[in-house]
Amino acid sequence: MGGFRLEMTRRGARGAIRSVLASIWYCGHSSTMGLECDDQFPGKADWRSLNTSVGGRLIAGTPLAQSCHGEFFNQSACDIIQDGYSQPPLYFQDPVNVMSPYWLNMSCSPFTPADAPCILGSIAAQAHRRGGLALWTHNLKHISFLNYSSPHYTGPAVKLGAGVQAVEVYQAAQTQGLRVTGGFCPTVGLAGGYIQGAGHGALEGLYGLAADNTLEFEVVTTEGQHLVATPTNNSDQYWALNGGGGSTFRGFTSEPFQPYYATLPDADEAAMAAAMAPFIQELETLGLSYTNTTSYNPTYYDHFAQYTPGLPFGSYATNSVIGGRLIARLTVQDRLGDLMSAFRNITTAGGRHPFRVNGVASNVTHGRVGNAAGANAVHPAWRDALYWLNMDVYFDERGPAAVVGALQARMNAYQDVLKALMPGGGAYMNKGTFDNPEWKADYYGPNYERLLGVKARYDPGFLLYGPASVGSDYWTVAADVCRITMGRSDYCLSSLEAYMNKGIMTMRRPP
Questions:
Q1: Could you report the per-residue pLDDT of 478-504, keeping only the tens digit for each?
Q2: Residue 196 resides in a domain
Q3: Which of 96, 112, 136 is the endpoint of a domain?
Q4: Range 211-218 average pLDDT
Q5: pLDDT, position 487
Q6: What is the DSSP string of 116-170?
Q7: Which of 34, 65, 66, 132 lies at a CB distance of 3.0 to 4.6 Å from 38, suitable for a disulfide?
Q8: Looking at residue 118, what is its pLDDT?
Q9: Complete edge-to-edge strand list for the sheet that includes strand 505-507
Q10: 393: Cα separation from own chain's centroid
């Protein structure tokens, strides 16, 4: 049996979410979650009953590269999968497979022989794994503009369905003379983990992080409650949803968001030249070569399109490992030499897989954004950061799984080097590593205990789970994994690391 996803459409979304969560909640009272070959796993009749209760919207998952193997082999279909395997478009209309060879754990690669095993992975609690269940919100594409009024904000707003991607709302906002804070990647879904992870992007220097710009959330809890969370209504959930991490508190249906008028005064070319002049002068004093170009576009979307080739999908490949660190102002001020030495060591380590570093300047202090400390659950390290340092490394998607695991280990080691230079700092959880042993401090900081309390209130059974998400350490991933029959041989799922070779999860009593 494969993983399942419940397809969400705008009509009846809340009722379907309540129905499926009620069913999961009933099963979730068990302290153990396993795979389909475990005794406690729901049988086929249970899945049929659940499918009936949600109007037949359950979708049984199949491996993306199934057409490259066994009885399903089809050369032309396999060629399409191979050509697009490291690019996003294939994955948008697939309800189960995710855009990462690492998290697909190479259990069905389009580049292995046709007679090689092809099954869904067995990564504990990942929705695309065998036996997993998730809510697929990709088709909740509703975008509407409205005049919003509350004690905290009055003005234009945009309401987004949970499946709206950045480029879609950028285009829609342009027609209204507005701009919306969102990610650099044009296909990131704004209303989900992007905002829960804080949400940085090209407009953060003007308006702050995405989590600084939400007005309310429309959600369904694991107990089937339909709630609206605002600064004054279900305010603890509103606080947690803004920067407190994804896969944790609720299922989304929609979210009003604060946009900005594009007619606000922005810098012209002369003002840009004046602002850059001291920096340019310093480069010339140091004798460094540089290229300085200035462009002008009438709207933010036009500007975004100029610097984002390949729209609407962009040029973001999936065959990479990503990590990084928030670089504090004091670190640059007091330990610049050590920081530059670390950068050189990371980027000159050599080998077939060189690491890159690049920075995204950030000025999201409370004074700049206009909110108070503690207004949301964003890690305080964001407010002290000079920029977000992004590290990445690419690999051949045809290569062995061991290479990906080794690169992940190197990424963690390099992150540890940066941590030593700025103790007490933090990282951007949307580009974090799942097996960071200091994930509570790095991704949540001093907010963690309060977030755990919100988790216990709205998800008392700790049903919603993701590695390094709030409360995830209440689950223990067991070392054993089911064996399944693949043709004439008994095949045991392999994985990239010990973590990914585990199936059954057991839970200690939540707080």
A1: 654 443 333 323 333 333 333 343 444
A2: no
A3: 136
A4: 93
A5: 33
A6: S-------TT-TTSTT-EEEE-TT---EEEEEEE-SS-EEEEEEEETT-BHHHHH
A7: 34
A8: 86
A9: 32-33, 505-507, 475-477
A10: 18
Say yes or no to pLDDT of 74 above 70.
yes
> What contacts 342, CB < 8 A, 6 or more positions away?
417, 418, 421
Per-residue pLDDT tens over the stretch 389-433: 999 999 888 877 788 888 988 999 999 999 999 888 899 998 888
* Total number of domains in the chain: 2
CA distance 107 to 324: 28
Residue tagged 């309310």 (tokens): 216
Q: Determine the pLDDT at residue 498.
A: 36
pLDDT over 80 (residue 320): yes
Last residue of a domain, one of 136, 161, 182: 136
- Asked whether the beta carbons of 375 and 219 are under 8 A apart, the reply is no
Nearest to 164 by CA among 377, 8, 5: 8
Amino acid letter for position 245: G
Q: Whole domain around residue 15: which residue ranges?
A: 4-136
In a domain, 259, yes or no: no
In sign, the C-alpha dihedral spanning 503, 244, 137, 323 is: negative
Contacts of 405-412 with C-beta under 8 Å, sequence gap 24+, read: 405/496, 405/497, 407/321, 407/353, 408/102, 408/321, 408/433, 408/435, 408/496, 408/497, 410/349, 410/355, 411/321, 411/322, 411/323, 411/355, 412/323, 412/436
Local structure of residue 209 (DSSP, 8 states)? -
- 277 within some domain: no
pLDDT of the residue at 217: 92
Give me the residues paired with residue 322 across strands: 392
494 secondary structure, DSSP code:
P
Single-letter code of the amino acid located at 136 = W
Alpha-carbon distance 448 to 317, whole Å?
32
- Asked whether the beta carbons of 105 and 3 are under 8 A apart, the reply is no
The pTM of the whole model exceeds 0.70 = yes
Burial of 357 (0-12, 13-18, 19+ CB in 10 A): middle
* Angle value at C-alpha 252, between 144 and 163, nearest 5 degrees: 55
What is the phi-psi region of residue 339: left when phi exceeds 0, alpha when psi lies from -120 to 50, beta otherwise?
Answer: alpha
Half-sphere exposure in the Cβ direction for 455 (13 Å, CA):
26
Closest CA to 241 of 441, 375, 433: 375
Angle at 26 between CA 245 and CA 239, to 5 degrees: 25
Using CA atoms, how far apart are residues 155 and 146, in angstroms rounded to an integer? 8
pLDDT in tens, 233-272: 999 999 999 999 987 766 555 566 676 554 444 778 888 8
The pair of three-digit structure tokens given for residue 321, joined into one six-digit string? 């490992």
CA angle 316, 119, 138 (to 5 degrees): 45
Nearest partner of 102 among 89, 75, 115, 121, judged by Cα: 121
